[in-house]
Structure formats: C-alpha cells, structure tokens
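The material for today's practical consists of a large collection of protein records. Read left to right, the backbone structure tokens trace the chain's path through space. An example says more than a description, so a record of this kind follows:
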Amino acid sequence: MKTIDIAEELKSNSYPGRGIIIGKSADGKYAVTAYFIMGRSVNSRNRVFVETSDGIKTEAADPEKLTDPHLIIYSPVRVLGNKTIVTNGDQTDTIYDLMDRQMTFEQSLRTREYEDDAPNYTPRISGVMHLENGNYNYAMSILKSDDGNPDSVHRYTYGYYNPVDGEGHFIHTYMGDGNPLPSFEGEPKKISIPDSLEEFADTLWTSLNEENKVSLFVRYIEIDSGKAVSKIINKYSK
C-alpha cells in the first residue's frame, strides 16, 4: 500500500468527519494515536475535548446551545490496563466493558452497528492499542451500512502486529461532504508518523478544514514504560 501524505489528504477533503490515526513513531519509541472531530451544524460544532481519569470525553462548549446530546457526547478515548481504546462514539464503553469481561475487540463490536442517523448511517470507527512487555500491536475497525442500505451491516477489522517504525494508519467516517454523507470506503490509509507530538498535532490541526474542524486529541505512549503524553486542541472554549 502506498504511503500518503496526511497533510495533503486532510487538505483535500473538506469534511472527513471524525478520524482515527494509530501507529508508531519514526524512532520506534512511541505508540501513537490521534482522534479528531468535525461538525457542520451548530450542535455538532458546540463541543470540546476534556480529560478524564482514564482518557477524554466530549462536552458542550456552551451548554445552552446543546440541543441534542445523542451521538455527539461520549468518551472517545479510554484506557483499560495496557490497552488504549479510541472510537468515534459510545462504542468506546462497549469495547471497554466487554474486553474487561475477556471478550476480544472484534467480538465486542459484533454487538454494535453503524449510527442511527439516517440517511447518513455514519460508520462507527474504532481502534485499540495493546502494549505489553515492550511489544506493541493495534487493530482498527469500521462498521458501516451497505452503501446506505440500513438493512445490511458490513463489519471490517484490521490487525497490525509488530508495526513498522514511522508507519501508521488513518480511518475516517466520510469520503467527503454531501447529503447524505458518503461513508468511508476501503481499508485504513497508510501514513507516516513523526517523532514529535507537537509537530504531528500541528500538522493535523492546520490541515483540517478551518470552518469544519472542532477538536483534536494526540497521544504518544512510550512503548517500553507505558508513560503517555497527550495534547488537546479545541477550536471552541468553554
């Protein structure tokens, strides 16, 4: 698979929607993830990322403007032991709870499907990072309708074992803007991951469409120690 330039990829798409990146830094020291959200409506844009005891959650930037919390208020990132879960919806909690009961990532997601936001039927995208004894692997998933047909659910899971230094994968919800919004197609896209969290966060944030971007989260986890450093960027403040 060809490695794409993540900056050019984001600049060329005014509305990729929500996106997950997981990979490994170029120096091989860090497990890396990023998650961003975008919005077209006032309700969708009225959000910020805030830290929690085990990850992050979305909150209304202005509670008085919150008209419908359904599908926009959730925990995108949670940590379960040596696993970091990243998703675009409340399936984060499903994965957390069922993996805590010894089910696999894939088994957990069999209990879920695409979002109930007809006619878009937004895909549920998810990822899990597993660090143990200096080893690192990750998996990504997308649950989507059959080209907008809600009667059929397509479930795809991609596993990445012993990931290559400097390599990551990017999956997002929409191919671009539209009505209805066209769901992501294909497997996660291969991208390059730099050593610097600040550099990576800046590249992603400045490349996202200025009008539609809302929030970005980036985390670098030392593979040997498990120590994590994170950065949150919110367009709107509380």
Q: What stands out?
A: The chain has a mean pLDDT of 97. The chain has five helices and 13 strands. The first strand starts at residue 19 and ends at 24. The chain has one domain: 6-234.
